[in-house]
Design brief:
Radius of gyration: 38 Å
Number of strands: 26
CATH superfamily of one domain: P-loop containing nucleotide triphosphate hydrolases
Strand order of the largest sheet: 6-7-8-3-9-10
InterPro entries: AAA+_ATPase, ABC1_TM_dom, ABC1_TM_sf, ABC_transporter-like_ATP-bd, ABC_transporter-like_CS, ABC_transporter_C-like, P-loop_NTPase
GO molecular function: ABC-type transporter activity; ATP binding; ATP hydrolysis activity
Subcellular location: Membrane
Helix content: 40-55%
Main location: membrane
Strand content: 5-15%
Keywords: ATP-binding, Membrane, Nucleotide-binding, Transmembrane, Transmembrane helix, Transport
CATH topology of one domain: Rossmann fold
Largest sheet: 6 strands, mixed
Shape: elongated
Length: 1107
């Protein structure tokens, strides 16, 4: 559209001039004298810049209209109520709140209401309410004609969105409430409803007092997918803007079992949060510590026990959930490990299909037979043996720690003693933290400071841009610009000839006669009096040539600029995708977004326009300067002085604006970073009432950017004033020289009009140089990423020549060998794997266990070469993986992560993104993990419309910060979604467990020989986990499976178990062999972990060992 506008406005000025002259000489029958012609040309020149600006204004107006409409649509979206957000509370003090509802929606949706005077201020209750994620889904009905207990009758429902139905729960103050249920039953959505993140139907009332009189939140929240502020220290994330209370801080550190982790970190609790500076389990416990440290009366915990091992689970239960830090606080815990807490909970709420299926005290539910007691009984049986085992092994440091946990489990009084002991130990800060606090050493910076070049832009970057677009096109472009200026100059010269061709044209001096006689054309031209059409025709031909060359120039330029943008973007994207993981740790996401956003936008739009304007104005200025010099040769001397004065005048301006633009470019990265972090953690931020603090930080970054932008604008005003002075001097000098009498009137008019254009072009040219240099600042920043480290060179990796592997690699008889594997994420970081050696036989199932931070996920990363080894080697089917192309290596392996990656699209797109399998195969994989009914998997596979997935109540919109939106997939056969069911970005409309199952199904569909499961079922319920393990044993019986798990039941029937501790392999063998060790035997790590579990008897039975 912009290109079409530009072509239109290339033609219009020429046509306006031609039509004006035509009417003047043909219709009005006037003579186009020299004075008339060049006066008209001067006027046309004055109005040309505004005319040329019209396309930009029109396009800007259209873009602004679209942007305003998008902003208006966004601003009119439903907003959270003032009881939920601090910003809404502040705004409601001056502006009446509308919540963004349209008039027609008021009868359908009513905001949640606060309790009034007759309700206890400490009460937290949901009374007869329904909740949903979308405004269209304003009422709900059951999935089937048979209502579940507690329903109030059928109502209309939008089946495309999950909802909570008929919720009636009162959460006791100062007590523990457990929310349990199968995967996707609505447990996390219940917490979202309490936080006010779900819309409420008009029925019922929500009683919550989230903020106290000072505006502090009474709620705190630990999410299932923990959100931490990247780049901030562990301490800053726990404090989260609140004052530092040493005693309370240390109590939280101990309660969340973080002390050992902090002691192991070089920078202690001042360690910056990054992708690999802390493990997933450590992130979960930091998030938990943040929720406990906040002085809130209600703490919401979303499945915080699934990300940690058994020993840490027990520690967190005793010291965090039930410990002194939780005393007199309302704890609402979503968990799949209810058996650890049922004897201490005041209320258990069982969810299914978005409804409260059962609720009550644990004893009542057990008496009614709706709450399983096997795990609870198993835990009781385990306690005595755990205490005996711990007491018998006090010589071992790790066993002593276990004994402390067991002791606190057996005796509540002992828990206080243990806490006091630990608090006394923690009173003296770790050595590293003390050194950091005293200033003896500074903490390691996680993010490298953004580099900023100094001085003029190197010619290397100009060459980079020219090569990215094509040198041939630029050569053609220069030729077209030259022809364009010659055509324009000829047109002006022809007007001079036309004006002097009238019979009554007289000369003023002898000098003029000599000039005229010496400047005659080699052929005679007819007089203009009777042949005005001839002169008009020739002038029209020159105008046609201008249109032709100008249009060709525009086409070539757009081709060159688009090609350059595409190539530069492809290079930038490719380099970022191939960057090693460590690079993402030290590079803030806002800085990366700045490259793809602001910098690429400048390269796409501003840089091409700057080059085009500079080329046009430079050639025009050269042409007009030659005209002035040819007509008035004496102009050479003053112009030489002006040329000397110009660089001195504008040189400082260009240098200053260039550096200011560089600083301005770097100042936008924090804005992107703040925005991205706030967006990804909005639920957590609102839960803590931290919006004002983070908004203030964001506005500080915006203020810095705006102040730099304002400084650049004032410099442009400075340049404009001085450029106009120089231009005025040029016109004055030419005028004086033209009045000397040695120049004909026609030539004088041509010289004066050219000098006037020089006046304008002087400013434009300097401004174009400024814009070009500043635009190339963005190219500098993008080109910088062309030199960034890459995962793999095309042929050589650390001295190894990469090669292709056989099509059948790895074979069914191939094994994996970890040979003295050592790994660190950076040269200045400690080893996370230290000489790990073991092998995995063909078809073997191996479980990897260990406490959080022991190196389990790092071991999986090494297999995919996500991080290159620091020492040792890994062989797969007798081939060192370091010699294999990364693309080939990773295409032959599969992995299911704890936080799986799903892309926006459909279920079918996510299962088979390259369309390599038919629908029957896709459905078969989904059926194996319980996401499709078996009958459907055998149904006709010709049409997606008949192939339904049992993914009940999946929302179609993203839910930020991990809020779950889906319900159980195995208990609602009447609710089915199709293969073309939408998947939101990141799988936000799936619960965490459903996303894990879908990712597992995708791996099953690939049918690779090696599958790695990294906590792949941590967010699923026990029954779903057991089902997945059955699938692994049957569908993958010939494949190697390496399973990283905290749930010991997931790997108890595996062929072997590998135990990691502090990056070292401390134990390896079959579960039967490891459980057969004596308690006092050195290295019985696996048995000790099993003893800590409430399922010890079941684990022994599964392994074929007597308890």
């Amino acid at each position: 559209m912009t290109f079409l506008f530009e072509l239109l406005w290339i033609v219009i000025p020429v046509l306006v001039t031609l039509v004006s002259f035509f009417f003047y000489v043909k219709v009005a029958k006037e003579e186009l004298t020299v004075s008339t012609a060049f006066t008209a040309i001067a006027l046309f020149t004055m109005i040309r810049p505004p005319l040329n600006a019209i396309p930009g204004f029109l396009m800007g107006g259209l873009i602004a209209m679209v942007s305003i409409q998008r902003l208006e649509s966004f601003l009119n979206e439903q907003e959270v109520e003032e009881a939920v957000s601090q910003l809404s509370r502040q705004r409601s003090a001056t502006v009446s709140r509308s919540n963004g509802y349209k008039d027609e929606d008021i009868d359908e949706v009513a905001p949640a209401r606060e309790g009034n005077g007759d309700v206890d201020s400490s009460e937290l209750a949901i009374k007869g309410c329904g909740f949903f994620w979308h405004s269209k889904q304003t009422t709900m009905r059951p999935d089937s004609d048979e209502d579940l207990p507690g329903s109030t009758g059928p109502r209309d429902v939008d089946h495309d969105s999950f909802a909570l139905r008929d919720i009636d729960v009162s959460f006791p103050a100062g007590e523990l409430t457990l929310i349990v249920g199968p995967t996707g039953s609505g447990k996390s959505s219940m917490l979202a409803a309490i936080l006010g993140e779900m819309l409420q139907s008009k029925e019922g009332v929500v009683v919550r007092n989230k903020f106290d009189q000072q505006g502090n939140s009474r709620l705190s929240f630990a999410n299932q997918l923990p959100w931490l502020e990247a780049g901030k220290s562990v301490r800053d994330n726990i404090l989260f803007g609140t004052p530092f209370d040493k005693a309370r801080y240390e109590m939280c550190i101990h309660a969340c079992a973080l002390q050992d982790d902090l002691d192991a970190m070089d920078d202690g609790d001042l360690t910056r949060i990054g992708s690999h500076t802390v493990s997933g389990g450590q992130k979960a416990r930091i998030s938990l510590a943040r929720a406990l440290y906040a002085r809130s009366s209600t703490v919401l915990l979303d499945d915080v026990l699934s990300a940690v091992d058994t020993r840490v689970q027990n520690h967190i239960v005793e010291h965090a959930v039930l410990g002194p830090i939780a005393k007199h606080r309302r704890i609402i815990l979503v968990t799949h490990h209810a058996h650890l807490l049922t004897d201490r909970a005041a209320l258990v709420v069982s969810m299914q299909s978005g409804r409260v299926l059962h609720q009550g005290e644990p004893s009542d539910l057990q008496a009614r037979g709706v709450l399983q007691t096997s795990h609870h009984q198993g835990r009781d049986k385990t306690r005595s043996s755990l205490a005996e085992s711990s007491a018998a092994s006090t010589d071992n440091a790790d066993t002593q720690e276990h004994a402390g946990t067991a002791k606190s489990t057996l005796h509540p009084d002992a828990a206080r003693t243990t806490l006091e002991d630990r608090a006394a130990e923690a009173a003296t800060m770790p050595k590293r933290t003390a050194e950091l606090a005293s200033g003896a050493r500074t903490p390691r910076l996680l993010h490298q400071e953004e580099k900023r070049r100094e001085g003029a832009v190197s010619w290397v970057f100009y060459r980079t841009y020219l090569q990215a677009s094509s040198l041939r096109i630029w050569a053609l472009l220069i030729l077209l610009l030259l022809m364009l200026r010659l055509s324009e100059s000829f047109g002006q010269y022809w007007l001079k000839v036309w004006g002097e061709a009238y019979k009554n044209y007289g000369l003023q001096s002898v000098a003029s006669i000599l000039i005229k006689s010496s400047s005659h054309l080699p052929f005679d031209l007819p007089p203009a009096d009777g042949h005005a059409g001839f002169y008009l025709f020739v002038y029209g031909l020159s105008g046609l040539a201008v249109i032709l060359f100008n249009s060709s120039r525009a086409i070539c330029f757009y081709v060159a600029s688009i090609r350059a943008s595409q190539n530069l973007f492809a290079t930038l994207l490719g380099n970022v995708i191939r960057a090693p993981l460590r690079w993402f740790d030290i590079t803030p996401s806002g800085r990366i977004m700045n490259r793809f956003g602001t910098d690429m936008d400048c390269i796409d739009n501003i840089l091409p326009q700057s080059i085009m304007n500079l080329g046009n104005n430079a050639f025009s200025m050269a042409a007009y300067f030659l005209i002035c010099v040819v007509i008035v040769p004496a102009f050479l001397l003053p112009s030489f002085l002006l040329v000397l004065l110009g660089p001195w005048l504008v040189g400082g301006f260009l240098a200053c604006t260039r550096d200011m633009q560089r600083i301005e470019a770097t100042s936008t990265s924090p804005i992107y970073g703040h925005f991205q972090q706030a967006l990804s953690g909005i639920v957590t931020i609102r839960a803590f009432g931290a919006e004002p603090r983070l908004l203030e930080s964001m506005l500080d970054a915006v203020d810095l950017y705006q102040s730099l932008w304002w400084a650049v604008c004032t410099m442009e005003v400075w340049l404009s004033f001085r450029s106009q002075i120089l231009g005025g001097v040029s016109v004055f000098v030419v005028t004086l020289l033209a009045l000397s009498g040695a120049v004909s009137p026609g030539s004088a008019g041509l010289a004066l009009s050219s000098a006037q254009l020089l006046c304008q072009l002087a400013y434009y040219l300097v401004n174009d140089f400024k814009s070009l240099a500043n635009s190339f600042n963005s190219l500098e920043r993008v080109a910088e990423y062309q030199q960034m480290p890459q995962e793999e060179n095309d042929q050589i990796v650390a001295g190894y020549s990469t090669s292709l592997v056989p099509a059948a690699w790895p074979s069914s008889r191939g094994r994996i060998v970890f040979d003295n594997v050592s790994l660190r994420y950076a040269e200045d970081l400690p080893l996370v794997l230290k000489g790990v050696s073991f092998d995995v036989k063909p078809g073997e199932k191996v479980g990897i266990i260990g406490r959080t931070g022991s190196g389990k996920s790092s071991l999986a990363s090494s297999l995919f070469r996500a991080v290159e080894l620091s020492g040792g080697r890994i062989l797969i089917d007798d081939i060192d993986i370091k010699t294999i192309h990364l693309q080939q290596l990773r295409s032959r392996l599969s992995i299911v992560m704890q936080n799986p990656v799903l892309f926006s699209g459909t279920v079918r797109d996510n299962m088979d993104p390259f369309n390599e399998h038919d629908d029957a195969e896709v459905l078969d994989a989904l059926t194996k993990v319980g996401l499709a009914a078996p009958s459907n998997s055998r149904a006709n596979s010709g049409s997606n419309q008949d192939q339904l997935i049992d993914l009940s109540d999946i929302s179609t919109d993203a839910v930020p910060d991990g809020a779950s939106t889906s319900t159980d997939k195995t208990s609602r056969p009447n609710m089915r979604l199709r293969l073309d069911t939408p998947v939101s970005s990141g799988g936000a409309n799936f619960s965490a467990g459903q996303a894990q199952l879908l990712s597992l199904a995708r791996s099953l569909l690939r049918s690779t020989r090696i599958l790695v499961l990294d906590e792949a079922t941590s967010s699923t319920d026990m029954d779903t986990d057991a089902m997945v393990q059955r699938v692994i044993r049957t569908a993958l019986k010939d494949s190697i499976v390496i399973c990283i798990a905290h749930r010991l039941k997931s790997i108890i029937d595996y062929d072997r178990v590998v135990v990691l501790q502090d990056g070292k392999l401390v134990e390896c063998g079959s579960p039967n062999e490891l459980l057969s060790k004596q308690d006092a035997e050195e290295g019985a790590f696996f048995k000790k972990l099993c003893r800590l579990s409430a399922e010890y008897s079941e684990l022994c039975a599964a392994a074929g060992v007597e308890p």
